[in-house]
Amino acid sequence: MRIAITGSTGLVGSALVRSLAADGHKVVRLVRRTPTGPDEVRWDPHAGTVDTASLGAVDAAVHLAGAGIGDRRWTAAYKRELRDSRVLGTAAISRALADLRPVPRVLLSGSAMGFYGDTGDRSVDETSSPGSGFLVDLCTEWEAATAPAREAGIRVAHLRTGLVVSRRGGAWGRMFPLFKAGLGGRLGSGRQYWSFISLADEIAAIRYLLDHEHIAGPVNLTAPHPVTNAEATKAMGRALHRPTVFAVPPFALRAVLGDFAGEILTGQRVLPKVLLDAGFTFEHPTVEDAIAAALAG
């Protein structure tokens, strides 16, 4: 297949590019700078433009671009950046794909488990309603921005991804050095659920969705056994043979992270019903499996 990918330099995007290329697929990376090779095409998510003439025909697109949720303190300005980078970028990609002839067969568009809001102890799946809050509103707009692609007859799946367990990046990537230094600990009460997925299972699930033509709409990319933050903390301590006696109080998180602290102190107990019903098998179904895979890889 010839597959267009945005966000190809990120944690998930770079791993996906390697996986697809290793199996002989042709990957076209959409970049926001001047292209430097034949496998790159220019796009500008804020301006809403894609160089479709250079893009040409593609069989599929995977849209992963967006400003990092936890990369900076949530000021009003950064909240706008989070929204614009996702909503404007998704709309631009969707319009561009809809204008291609022939249109691609599928668009896999990034989203997040934040769609469900704070679920407490309640389990949710793809049939559940959205919660409330900034991330909920963001995910709702983000997914709605794929409308041009869907209306053009392109199969669209929304990747509601959980916390990706990897040493290479993301929220979990920032935790590994702290835990290795013996400074890891629960956040707040630790009772909030963390729905996770190993990087290998994230890539395998995306590739599964590329190939399975009957799957559309929201798809939870989370392992089938979510854990609380306290349980994840203990698992990290056991895997790294380090104590986990520290606890970060809520006021400290708010001082450093601003409004994002509220998302850290709440949680989502998310189940991957669509993937499981379709027959997808997780290689790392437990948090212990996912942590061990990250340490090994």
CATH topology value: Rossmann fold
Give the CATH level 1 class.
Answer: Alpha Beta
How many structurally independent domains? 1
List low-pLDDT spans. Answer: none
How would you explain this protein's 3D organization?
The protein has a single domain, classed as 3-Layer(aba) Sandwich (Rossmann fold). Helix content is 41%, strand content 21%. The protein is built from 12 helices and 16 strands. It has helices at residues 11-22, 52-55, 76-99, 134-144, 147-151, 170-180, 199-211, 229-240, 250-257, 260-264, 273-278, 287-296; strands spanning 2-6, 26-31, 40-44, 49-50, 60-63, 106-112, 123-124, 155-161, 163-165, 185-187, 193-194, 196-198, 217-221, 227-228, 246-248, 269-270. The chain has an 8-stranded mixed sheet with strand order 4-3-2-1-5-6-8-13, with helices on both faces. Strands 7-16 form a two-stranded parallel ribbon. A two-stranded parallel sheet has the order 9-12. Helix 3 packs parallel to helix 4. It is globular, with a radius of gyration of 19 Å. It starts with a strand and ends with a helix.
